[in-house]
From TrEMBL:
Spans traversing the lipid bilayer: 41-59, 75-97
Record protein name field: Integral membrane protein
Keywords assigned: Membrane, Transmembrane, Transmembrane helix
UniProt superkingdom: Bacteria
């Protein structure tokens, strides 16, 4: 029981890391390029706001009482598959969305809240893609 809880906790930490790491990379690149203003951590805050609920959801999916209707192996296969989708989408979606909207006047530097909002929205889409993958794989394995 302790091992399964520790594994579930480790998986949820990985999920949080997959959501927050792209923001840390962008912030670090801004530091190295000289573009970061002091006290500017809006992308990190937006990522943590999305990542913490995603990590809690991942932990609840793998917590032992939550998976009593499915095989433990099936639950872990679905969790690892959904983690792969989440990690890929969490790093690719914000870059694609922000690149696609660079020409829009709505995302200019004067409206500082819009970029973190777009970032958080794309991270939410990545979490939703991971969750949909988890459910689809569980359904497929149950057949």
């Amino acid at each position: 029981m302790i091992v399964s809880r520790a594994l579930a906790l480790g998986h949820s930490v990985l999920v949080l890391g997959a959501v927050v790491t792209p923001a840390l990379v962008v912030e670090h690149a801004g530091d190295r390029g000289g573009l970061r203003a002091p006290g500017d951590a809006d992308l990190i805050v937006a990522s943590v706001a999305v990542g913490v609920p995603a990590a809690v959801l991942a932990w609840r999916r793998l917590h032992p009482p939550a998976s009593r209707w499915q095989s433990r192996t099936d639950v872990w296969i679905a969790a690892l598959t959904s983690f792969g989708v989440l990690a890929g989408a969490a790093s690719a979606l914000p870059a694609v969305v922000l690149h696609a909207t660079t020409g829009l006047a709505a995302l200019d530097a004067d409206a500082g809240w819009r970029v973190p909002a777009v970032w958080a929205g794309s991270q939410l889409a990545a979490v939703a893609a991971g969750e949909a993958t988890h459910r689809a794989v569980l359904r497929w394995l149950a057949r």
